[in-house]
Amino acid sequence: MIYTLNAAGFDAVGFSDGTSFWEAFRNETPELVLLDIMLPGEDGISILKRLRSDGSPVPVIMATAKGTEYDKVIGLDLGADDYLSKPFGMMEMVSRVKAVLRRAAPPSKDEVLSIGGISMDTSQHIVLVGGERAELTYKEYELLRKFMENPGRVFTRDQLLTSIWGESYIGETRTVDVHIGTLRTKLGRCGDFIETVRGVGYRLGANK
């Protein structure tokens, strides 16, 4: 895998366990992490949880054993950007890496987005509501960012699932409704900025 990634033009380094990974991660933040769930010591799910709880936005592709649907769902819900089912081909791996990096590329917009009483610093992953910091999960943050970058645009649940959870996500659109509900609650008085468009989906009111 390392040989193939390097041959494809990436500067790739491999680690056999979580300890060596974290030592390297503290010294340099990578553009992407390809993370195997089955690792000695700290497993891949634990490493992913730690990355996201620390607020790291680095894209993560999980490598899972074939048929382990539970691991795929848990990984994607915790903030993984995509997954590869073992055994997988090297060209498929390179293709997935390139696709995730394209999706994760920062938009050519201001680093601070502001609408009404909501302010989002995309460089630091900080959201303020009325000057007070809102503690959002990774998926809640990405949903809000999607809306704030496209005020007034209506997104269907399927579009949000694909954009935020990834094309490989196998859950239900109800997942979007649940996350929208918790996001509204955390935004407090600004929660109603996120409008439900009956029979279609959601949008951030452009006139808010």
Total domains, how many?
2
Number of DSSP E strands: 10
Which strand-content bin applies to the residues? 15-25%
**For this structure, what is the CATH homologous superfamily of the largest domain?**
Response regulator
Major sheet summary line: 4 strands, antiparallel
Report strand order across the widest sheet: 4-5-6-7
User: Radius of gyration in whole Å, from Cα?
Assistant: 18 Å
- What number is the mean pLDDT? 87
The N- and C-terminal alpha carbons lie at a distance of 49 Å
Helix and strand pattern: HHEHEHEHEEEEHEHHEE
Give the helix/strand class: alpha+beta
Q: Report the CATH C-level class of the largest domain.
A: Alpha Beta
CATH architecture of the largest domain: 3-Layer(aba) Sandwich
Q: Can you give the helix content as a percent range?
A: 40-55%
Supply the number of helical segments.
Answer: 8
CATH topology of the largest domain: Rossmann fold
Name the overall outline: globular
Q: Could you list the spans in which at least 5 consecutive residues all have pLDDT below 50?
A: none
Structure in words:
With 208 residues, the chain is an alpha+beta fold. It has eight helices and ten strands. It is 40% helix and 19% strand. It is globular.
Quick synopsis:
With 208 residues, the protein is of the alpha+beta class. The chain is built from eight helices and ten strands.
Characteristic key phrases:
208 residues; alpha+beta; Rossmann fold; Arc Repressor Mutant, subunit A; 2 domains; four-stranded antiparallel β-sheet; three-stranded parallel β-sheet; 8 helices; 40% helix
